[in-house]
Design a protein that fits this description.
- By secondary structure, this protein is mostly helical.
- It contains 15 helices and no strands.
- The protein has helices at 2-12, 16-36, 40-65, 67-88, 94-116, 119-140, 144-157, 164-179, 181-203, 208-214, 220-233, 239-264, 270-283, 285-301, 303-315.
- Mean pLDDT is 84; it is low at 310-316.
Length: 316
Amino acid sequence: MGAPVLALARFTLKGPYQAATVVGLLAVLAVFIPLLMPNTVIGVFIATLCTMLSCTMVGLVILTQGSVSGLKAIAVSVLGITLVAWVVLKAPELGLWTALVQWLPIIVLAQTLRSSKSLSMTMMVGVVIGAIAIAMQYMLWDNLEASWINMALERMSQAEQMQKELVERNIQLIRLFVLALVAMAYLIFMLIVVSARWIQARLADSDGFGKEFRSLSLGKSAAAVGLALILPSLWLNQAWVNSLAFLVVIAFMFQGIAVVHERLLGWKKAGLWLGLYYILLLIFPQVVALSAITGLIDNWLGFRKLAANSNHDNEL
C-alpha cells in the first residue's frame, strides 16, 4: 500500500488545485461511502481510511509547503464538500464542520512540527489541545454519557430476550468510550501527523524520520505531570481525571513505542518482532499500558542510552 500512497502524495504536492482535489474528494467519499455500502461495517472502515488519508494529505502539504498552501487546499475542499452536501444531503454546514473537526487540529499540529522540527513538541501541543477538549467536553456536554446510554437502551429494548449481562456490558463500553473519547482522537491525529512526516521523508528519500521517532522523548517535566494525573485516577472516581489519564497514557505510549524501535534496531528479524509487538498492542490493553509505563520511566532511566552503552561495552 506504500507505493500507491506515495504516488497520491506526489500528485497532491504538484499544486494547490491538485491538493484541493485529492483532499476534497477523499473527504466527500468519507461522507457518502457509508450511505452507499450495503455492509455498514465495511463502509465505516473505508470511510475512516478516506478521512485519515485526507487529513494526512493536508498535513503533508503543510509540512512541505506551509500553512498557506494547506489552507488553500482546505478552503477549496470545504467549498466542494459544502456544495455536494447541500445538493445531496441538504446539509451545507457539513463542509464547515469537516474543517473544524478534522482539519483544524491537523493544521495546528502539522504547523507546530514544521516550525519546531520536533515530534516531542508536537505531541505535547497535542496533549494541551486534548486537555482543553476534555475541559470543554465536561463543561459543555456533561450529559454526553447519559444521552448515549439512553439511546443505547432504547435500541437494545427493541431487541427481544436481551440478556441483562449483555446490556450492562454495553453500558460499560459506552462509559469507557466517553472517558477515552479525546484520547482516541489524540491517537488518531498524532498517527496522521506522524504518517504525513513519514511520507515527507520517503518522498525526500531521507531516513530522518526514523531517527526522529526513535529518539522521541517527552521529558522529565512532562513525565512528572503525567504521573501526577495518572496516579489519582487509580482511586478517584472523577470522569475528567480519568479522561486526562487516558490522554497521558496514549502520549507516553508513543515514547514507549520509540523505545521498542530503538532497542530492536539491528536485531535479526527486527521487522518480525515489531510486527508481533504491534499486533499485541492492538489486541491487549495491557501492552498499551506497559508501553506507556516504559515511555514514562524512560525519561529518568534512559533505556535507549543503556542499550547504547551495553552495545559499546560488548564491542570493547
